[in-house]
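Honest question from a wet-lab person: if I give you the sequences of every part of a complex, can you actually get the arrangement of the whole thing, not just the pieces? Trying it with mine:
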Amino acid sequence: MKNITDEPMFETKAFKLSKQEESLCKKARNLGIKKFAGRAYKYDDEAVFPSENYQDLYREGLLGICIPKKNGGLGANFRCYMLTAAEIGRYCGATALTWNMHVCSTLWTGILADDLNMSARINKEHNKKRAVHYKRIIKNGAIYSQPFSEGGSAAAGATPFLTIATPTKNGWIINGKKIFASLSGHASYYGILCTEKKPGEQSSQKDTLYLAIPSDAEGVSVIGDWNPLGMRGTVSRTLIFKDVFIPKEDALMPKGKYYDAAKRWPHMFLTLSPTYVGLAQAAVDFTIKYLRGELPNTPPVKRRMFATKQITVAEMEIQLENIKTIWFQSISEACVNPSPQQIKRAYATQFTVMEGAHKIAQLAIRTCGGQAMLKSLSLERIFRDSRCGSLMLPWTAEICLDRIGKSSLYNPGEKD
Ligand SMILES: Cc1cc2nc3c(=O)[nH]c(=O)nc-3n(C[C@H](O)[C@H](O)[C@H](O)COP(=O)(O)OP(=O)(O)OC[C@H]3O[C@@H](n4cnc5c(N)ncnc54)[C@H](O)[C@@H]3O)c2cc1C
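Yes, you can. This is the full assembly:
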């Protein structure tokens, strides 16, 4: 039977992909089809981390996708990473989402940091430190996570982080809590954001530190259970840091540079979106195979001859094209110091992807019908996983709407 819908999501010719983009997307798609798709049910059903997928990602060099070639990585740029991640999200949302957190620890400390005009001294120090992190990933298969959320407004970028790093002579003592910490108990290092502060001092976002905490450091614990609606394989439990000592060498970025990046390289927060672009594509892939009677493990019954189903498929395809088009534009134009229009488009992109992926999954369930939503089939998981995209800080659907509306109606500094 011909596998009609596992064509590339972004055709090389139409989207003018580079050789590297084409080949990494192909690699991701092959991994997805041959390995990840078949394992996704178990990770979701048992809410367990996709460890086998991570072994494959390591073997294929994909843990180092954004690590510069001179440090042993694949040297992919922002767009190349995003396109590759979308192909992975198509086959296993939880793998793509957690892989994103890992990759960001290399992307932000790498290409993004290079755009931030550090002084020669700070740059030299940063180069030395990031080489250590990169080596851990390339040589030992270390996995980094990205636990920023604390349940307050810090992860939304509104207030300083409540996890505190008290400076000592050689490093910091960390105290605090992170909720929804994907990869908890599975990452080798937790890449946390926290506020550097001496006792009695005021907190400031400018003092944000981005540090790598070894998961086996004394004072680190993982608590709580994990039994959510979707993205169950992310294992996003709660992390507690109690008087954890971190040496200066374990800083992922120089002090204040994360804050700088968030302001000057805002597309860094679009990195959660490729997973959901992949899920949107997966819902369409499923629907077409199912209605043609070509989905493995289902009876070869054709359901495509009803006009209502054809119309719904057309609506899904139109929504998918809309998602892909705005997303491709935003990931292509991502840069340091983007214009207000580019930033607004990035928020619109995030909203369109996160809300759109779930809408497509809803249409898929409706048009495929009752038998298609059995837990044994991937659509039911895609439906639940896709619901999680809009909740992800710092660019939740509400925050995107809020910022687009305000920035359209008010010039900077304008008040009523
Ligand atoms: C599957 C999954 C995996 C995750 N993994 C990670 C992870 O690895 N690391 C990590 O750091 N976080 C992770 N998160 C957490 C996520 O980014 C959010 O922090 C979390 O969902 C917020 O939950 P909350 O209940 O505190 O909601 P709230 O933050 O209270 O949000 C509730 C509502 O308030 C809105 N809101 C919140 N802040 C503002 C604001 N300042 N302005 C306007 N509206 C606002 C939101 O849009 C939302 O509608 C994950 C979440 C999920 C669902």
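Two things worth pointing out. The first strand starts at residue 144 and ends at 145. The mean pLDDT is 96.
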